[in-house]
Design goal:
Helix 7 packs across helix 8. This protein has a single domain (about 5-280), classed as 3-Layer(aba) Sandwich (Rossmann fold), CATH 3.40.50. The longest helix is centred in the N-terminal third of the chain and has 24 residues, at about 60-80. Strand 3 and strand 4 (about 45) form a beta hairpin. The protein has helices spanning about 15-25, 45-55, 60-80, 95-100, 115-120, 140, 165-170, 210-230, 230-235, 250-260, 265-275, and strands at about 5-10, 30-35, 40, 45, 105-110, 125-130, 150-155, 160, 180-185, 195-200, 245, 285. The protein contains 11 helices and 12 strands. It has about 290 residues and is α/β, with parallel strands linked by helices.
Length: about 290
């Protein structure tokens, strides 16, 4: 199995997937890097909140708050209640998971900093796996691993490249829900050759928050297959042609979501994502990479 580093962003949509990835692959995980979203190049937390309200509206801000702010609070409550439940935990954060297995964990506002790059070089990596990470890798990071940098993107590429792929998969007419793995070869966003894809059929009438968690959990088994046969997957890549790209949603796109009945969040779906959506029991199917 390749020795790899995992780049990710801690949020409720990834709790289930990250737990599975770290549990399954801890023996081969050299390092986990989580994005420090509160100290990003986009500014501090308050500046980001103001920007999101102005550009996307309050409903989108609520989605972000549940994703990134309510999630760590829920973990702290879960940790505090554990003694009353015989030590049983519903969810552990990445730092706890890494500590349990002796894996080095780094929170990075900028993964391209020289000290992070030097840490990656010392880790003796075959592979970097990017799983819902919000930073663009520069060439000096991309060149670190011996084999490749693989990004797992929660959409059926080449459609819905960019941010919030679950939301835009719901908004694009005829777009299936799915998850793709592709190579990162330069700074282009979600544009490298595809090495594996899956489609999935989440339960209907659930919010985007739930869909995000479901789709990311489906990607865990796909990642298992890639790690088990990295050479075979690297030998059969398919270039991306056409498709679509989305950044932060506009107020117009949020209005369209409301018109067609796409909900961003619900309290029910937050706790479902926190516990685990059950996507591991879905009838998702392997799909040939499409162009």
């Amino acid at each position: 199995m390749p020795r790899f580093a995992l780049f990710t962003t801690e949020c409720v949509q990834l709790g289930d997937a990250l737990t599975e990835i770290i549990d399954r692959h801890h023996a081969d995980l050299a390092l986990v890097v989580t994005s420090d979203i509160h100290h990003s190049p986009r500014g501090g937390l308050l500046a980001q909140l103001i920007t999101h309200v102005r550009n996307s509206g309050v409903r989108f801000l609520h989605y972000l708050n549940l994703s990134f702010l309510a999630y760590p609070l829920a973990i702290r409550v879960d940790r505090a209640l554990a003694p009353l439940r015989g030590g049983r935990r519903t969810r552990r954060d990445v730092a706890e998971l890494c500590a349990a297995y002796g894996i080095k964990h780094v929170r990075a506002p900028n993964v391209n900093r020289p000290d992070i790059v030097e840490l990656l070089r010392r880790a003796d990596l075959d592979l970097i796996v990017v799983y819902w990470f919000d930073q663009i890798l520069r060439e000096h990071v991309i060149s670190v691993p011996r084999r490749a940098v693989v990004n797992v993107h929660a959409a059926y590429l080449p459609h819905c490249r960019g941010l919030f792929p679950g939301l835009f998969s719901a908004l694009e007419d005829g777009q299936p829900f799915g998850i793709s793995a592709h190579l990162i070869e330069n700074r282009e966003i979600d544009a490298g050759p595809i090495i594996a894809q899956r489609t999935t059929s989440p339960p209907q009438d659930r919010s985007v928050l739930f869909l995000d968690s479901w789709i990311n959990r489906v990607g865990v088994d796909m990642l298992d297959e890639i790690l088990a046969d990295l050479d075979g997957h690297l030998a059969t890549t398919v270039p991306q042609l056409g498709g679509s790209y989305h950044s932060y949603p506009s107020r117009r796109e949020m209005a369209r979501a409301r018109r067609i009945g796409v909900r961003l969040t619900s309290v029910r779906d937050f706790f479902a994502a926190f516990r685990g959506t059950g996507a591991e029991h879905s009838s998702d199917r392997a799909a040939a990479p499409r162009t």
